[in-house]
Each structure stands twice: as C-alpha cells, then as structure tokens.
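>> received
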Amino acid sequence: MGLGDAVDGRVFHVKLPGQDAMARRAEEYVVPTRVMLPRRVMDRPLRQVAKRVAMAMMVLAATVLIVYVDRDEYHDNADGRVDFLDAVYYATVTLSTTGYGDIVPYGDGARLINVLLVTPLRVLFLIILVGTTLEVLTERTREDFRLNRWRSNLREHTVVVGFGTKGRSAIQTLCSTGLKKEHIVVVDPATKVIEAANAEGFVGVLGDATRSDVLLRAELQKARQIIIATQRDDTAVLVTLTARQLNRGAKIVAAVREEENAPLLRQSGADAVITSASAAGRLLGLSVLSPSAGTVMEDLIQQGSGLDLIERPVIKAEVGKNVREVEDLVVSVLRGHRLLGYDDPAASPLQLTDRLITIVRASPSHIPMSSPPPGSGLR
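>> returned
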C-alpha cells in the first residue's frame, strides 16, 4: 500500500513526520522473526553443540601438545617410540576414557603430568562434550514445550504493537485494571525493545508488524484487542490493515502523530484513533488556561490513582433511574452503538443493557472486570 492509496473508494494521503530519524530507525531494519518468552532465550541447539565441540577440540589439542612435548617418556608397544600421530591417538583414547594401554607413560615426569594435567583435562573434556551438550538439548526441548503450551493456551489476549512510550503507557493502564501480564503480547522490530519487554514479564515477538506472519506468531487471530502504538503513521496504517484482515472481530485502537491521518486509520479498520500530538497539545493548552483543570485531566487518564474514568454495566438497582440519581458521576451512557451525554434527555431512564462512562475514586471495587461486552476493550 502506498502513501496515497484508496481505501473503500476514498483516497487518503498519509502525512509523514519530517526529519524524525528516531521514529524511522527501528522500522528500517530487517530483523528475523521469533517469539521471545519472558526469559533469556538460548542459542539454537546446533550452535550450542558446535560451541561445546570447539571447546572440546581445544582441550584435545592441549592434551596432544602436552604428550608430544614429553613424548620421550612414553612407550609405544608397537615400535617403541611415540611420534605426533601417536600423541594424537593417545590423547584421543585417554580423554574418551577408552585407554587401550598400547601407549603408556613410563617416566616419572610423564606420569606426574598425567596426574596433574591430563586427568583434569579428561574430566573437563567429558563435562564439555557430554554433560553440557545434554543440558543444552534438554533446555531447548523444555523451551520448545513451553512455547507450544503458551500458543495452545493463549486466548482472548491483547496484542500491543510498539513498546515505546505510548505502548508502555497503554500496557500500564491495562495492567492497572487487572489484566495479567501473560495475556499481553508485545510486537516490536527492535531486539533490545523486546528484551526490555521480556524483562518486565511480557511475551515478545520480534519482527516487522506490517507482515502477517509476524502478527500470526503473536496469535493475533485469537486476540480480543489490539493496540497499535508505532512511531510512524504510515506504519500504523499498514499494521491496522493487516491486523483487521487477520482478525475481523478484535477491537483495534491506534495512535497517530498527525490528526489528518486519523480518518485513514479509521477507514483501515481501527475502532478508535488517538491523535497523540494533538491530544498532548490540547492538554498543554488546557493546563495554561487552567492548571487545575489540566491536573484533573491528567489524573483521569492515569488509571489506578486519584480519579478514574471507567466504563461499567448498569446494575439492576440502577435500572429505571435518572442519570443524575446514580451514585457515581456519569459522563455518558452507551446504548447500543449510541453514545449519549449525561444531559441528553434520551439517556434517562437507564436500561439494563446500557453501559455507563463514569468518574470514580480509584479503588479495586471500581475496576470494571465483570462481564465486559465483546470488543469493549475492558478485561
């Protein structure tokens, strides 16, 4: 998709941020795709085994050198003398604990060297080549089993594309409402970013989120909600189109830098679009005009402290009441697909199927965890 393509018959042009090198940096690298669970990921088994074999060969070479330098104190039953090939043969059968006995150290110096050097090298050789190799293969098998179990158990989760400032803040808000970390999957093209997500306990998928295979690794087709917090607006559009194609029922919330790009995100399949630059600018302007009002607004968007803006269902005791009779401060009423203001005459009386947007004092009892509707974005 280009920067000025048609969506649903309408032509939009994506405005790109100028001279934003930091925003482009992570997106321009081509990176391999893999799922990273929140723990240190080991190298591939063959690579791990190759490292151990190389170390074992170094131990073998050191043993050959020791025997060859002291070859005059060794005796070969075949011809009585020890050459370089005999030294390699003796070192091999000794380190492998085979020990045929056809080449033996007969001098005191050679026997002392065998006790002090060759025997420790034999033990080290066995530890490297056998013990560590089995450990690597066992650990990798355990990791693969853990990954397969994670895939099979993952349902109704949240996929967050981008783990920058916006993505982190969105995750923090979700976690403050009770969403568990294992129900969040982070997708980002930067290895260090995914490692940071792993360090905080989140599963990460390393790769370009504009590619469907990367999103499939995040099990996006089974996700309930998707947060797109990329650095570039054009990337957000491509990710939104791909995500909507893979999952028709998930709620998609996307962030854009430029306000004129918001309609394109909505046409691409986003259910809600947040203009980060404009929102920050409006909050700055409000804080200048009324610092107290700005403080209240900032408090409302920080979930879990002070005042919280939440969505909850109407309880039976509130059915038939006027909006102003509700104990909580009602801002809006969601009735079907209509969002009614608190002063709208149609908002009262309240119906059992309504949902209320209210301002409450932050406390665990106000966390909206009970039976959220599909696609509400609240879990």
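>> The chain is about 45% helix and 15% strand.
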